[in-house]
């Protein structure tokens, strides 16, 4: 009688595994060939995998990280924000050659495992040339109307909750949000009322959560305070693992290899076709190939992979004859700001309010300023994690007290694409990020607009003894919104990708993540990456299925 051995293939379904016991399914052999090889399983790659899954195309997803464990620490602020339990060790260098650890998350689902799931469309104007106070945001090669149908599908796939018609900068939409807006808790409703009384147009922030407030007893999302910046322990956040990779793997034609870091793409002699994908799985080398190869490693890592894949035909890096790969890195001018009120803020799910009244400017400053939205509710532990040096001397209870009275704002302005803000790689393959902030006037003006409101927001109906603001600019280690290193365009001299996100110089190589964005606007980038993945995915099906 044979007995199970440790080298046996993955066990069959058990009554205790949640759907997809076969998700760990794969035995990919050396030299295996697929219709499409997708490298990276985040917003771009995970969405693309799901889009291709029903077509029957043979798809392999390669992900350098593992499944993010569902464990109590998912919702432990100390583990997440102070011990950085889910930050993946991969130090980068800054422009001075100084090492820093970016907030990277290498897991199935990529950065979306940690994201706040705020799902904004770029504004219509973001696709056109926009004059900023400190420079120009160039036009995209396509218009908002080209992306609109894909945004609508992206909102459906990621279960976005929202309310059309409230945001004065809202672009035209072909349908309603698929789900009703997440209801404001009382303090947020009061904030909305106060903002309206001040003449503004606050709106329900669009949010990707699997929430049914009409039937809370059966809702997967519990509206807890561990959404923004935490992995979701109960898989109720609309991330690319839960809504991209897992559904994709329910199709037998889709395979996933975790702990599989792609090291290099090899072309044929002409340099026009990627003929092999070289990777390491648990330190062991493996080579696979695909009719089409899609790089979806996130903006910095996609640039890294192309640069590391230099060869005789592509001496500056794959698809980099134009020297554009890695350039125009953007990540937003973002500030987390905390305003303290006299009365405690009892909100649990705080991320329901956003303001775009200054997105494109106002009568006193006729230039774009950006977006304001609420973040997840902070507590003392989180605040210490965000600013460990500044809060080193402060006891935990004092930070808890501050946080109890805090309203937490996220202020985003556009950083402009600058060719000198770029990703390069060192001889050992390490990322070097050279970044100099720009367009800071817009950010300062937006902060001043919020500051100018605070009296009306907090003092009107009650006595306030004091107000504090703890503001800190996001340093370059805050890479969450990274974008723009392989911009798409119609001119091969100024772009890496064509309008289908295929490399101009390689016939079967695509880049599908936030890299393709020529500008970043001032709203969170993932819905745009998701919409684009659906757009490019449809092109790929046409290409491969005829
Ligand atoms: C804390 C936090 C909060 C955020 N909040 C929001 C928000 O509320 N709204 C929003 O729109 N955006 C938010 N973002 C940003 C959002 O998560 C990203 O814009 C989005 O995930 C980018 O998608 P991507 O496909 O470009 O990259 P990713 O999602 O990062 O996916 C890239 C994947 O490629 C893998 N990979 C990298 N290199 C290799 C390699 N060589 N071989 C194999 N695999 C590789 C990585 O492990 C990763 O899984 C947030 C990000 C963070 C970190």
UniProtKB/TrEMBL annotation:
The keyword Transcription does not apply. Residues 1-20 are annotated as: Disordered. Residues 108-328 form the Glucose-methanol-choline oxidoreductase N-terminal domain. Keywords: FAD, Flavoprotein, Oxidoreductase. Residues 477-533 form the Glucose-methanol-choline oxidoreductase C-terminal domain. It comes from the Bacteria. InterPro entries: FAD/NAD-bd_sf, GMC_OxRdtase, GMC_OxRdtase_N, GMC_OxRtase_C. Residues 1-15 have a biased composition (Low complexity). Belongs to the GMC oxidoreductase family. This is GMC family oxidoreductase.
């Amino acid at each position: 009688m044979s007995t199970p051995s440790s080298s046996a293939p993955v066990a069959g379904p058990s009554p205790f595994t949640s759907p997809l016991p076969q998700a760990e399914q794969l035995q990919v052999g050396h030299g295996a060939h697929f219709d499409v090889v997708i490298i990276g399983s985040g917003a771009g790659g995970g969405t693309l995998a799901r889009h291709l899954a029903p077509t029957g195309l043979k798809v392999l997803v390669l992900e350098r990280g593992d499944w993010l464990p569902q464990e109590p620490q998912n919702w432990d602020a100390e583990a997440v924000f102070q011990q950085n339990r889910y930050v993946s060790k991969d130090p980068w260098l800054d422009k001075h050659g100084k090492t820093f650890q970016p907030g990277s998350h290498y897991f199935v689902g990529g950065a979306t495992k940690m994201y706040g799931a705020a799902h904004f469309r770029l504004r219509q104007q973001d696709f056109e040339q926009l004059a900023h106070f400190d420079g120009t945001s160039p036009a995209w090669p396509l218009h908002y109307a080209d992306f609109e149908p894909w945004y609508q599908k992206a909102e459906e796939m990621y279960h976005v909750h929202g309310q059309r018609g409230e945001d004065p900068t809202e672009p035209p939409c072909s349908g309603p949000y698929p789900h009703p807006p997440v209801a404001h808790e009382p303090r947020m409703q009061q904030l909305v009322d106060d903002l309206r009384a001040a003449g503004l147009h606050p709106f329900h922030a669009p949010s990707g959560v699997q929430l049914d407030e009409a039937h809370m007893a059966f809702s997967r999302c519990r509206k807890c305070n561990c959404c923004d910046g935490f992995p979701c322990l109960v898989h109720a956040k609309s991330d690319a693992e839960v809504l991209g990779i897992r559904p994709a793997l329910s199709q037998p034609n889709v395979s996933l290899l975790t702990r599989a870091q792609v090291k290099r793409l090899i072309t044929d002699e002409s340099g026009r076709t990627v003929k092999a994908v070289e990777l390491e799985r648990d330190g062991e080398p493996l080579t696979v190939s695909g009719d089409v190869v899609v790089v979806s490693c996130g903006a910095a890592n996609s640039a890294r992979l192309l640069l590391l894949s230099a060869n005789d035909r592509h001496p500056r890096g794959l698809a980099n004859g134009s020297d554009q790969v890695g350039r125009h890195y953007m990540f937003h001018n973002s500030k987390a700001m905390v305003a303290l009120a006299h009365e405690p803020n009892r909100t649990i799910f705080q991320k329901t309010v956003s303001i775009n009244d200054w997105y494109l400017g106002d009568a006193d400053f006729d230039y774009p300023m950006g977006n304001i939205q609420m973040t997840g509710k902070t507590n003392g532990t989180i605040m210490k994690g965000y600013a460990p040096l500044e809060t080193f001397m402060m006891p935990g209870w004092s930070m808890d007290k501050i946080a109890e009275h805090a309203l937490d704002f996220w202020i985003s302005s556009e950083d402009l694409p600058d060719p000198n803000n770029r990703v390069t790689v060192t001889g050992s393959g390490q990322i070097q990020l050279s970044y100099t902030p720009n367009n800071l006037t817009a950010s300062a003006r937006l902060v001043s607009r919020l500051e100018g409101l605070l009296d009306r927001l907090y003092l009107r109906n009650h006595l306030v003894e004091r107000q504090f603001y703890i503001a800190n600019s996001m340093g370059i280690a805050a890479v969450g919104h990274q974008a723009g290193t392989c911009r798409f365009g119609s001119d091969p001299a100024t772009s890496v990708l064509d309008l289908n996100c295929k490399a101009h110089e390689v016939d079967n190589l695509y880049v599908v993540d936030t890299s393709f964005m020529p500008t970043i606007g001032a709203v969170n980038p993932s819905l745009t990456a998701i919409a684009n993945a659906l757009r490019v995915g449809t092109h790929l099906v046409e290409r491969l299925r005829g």
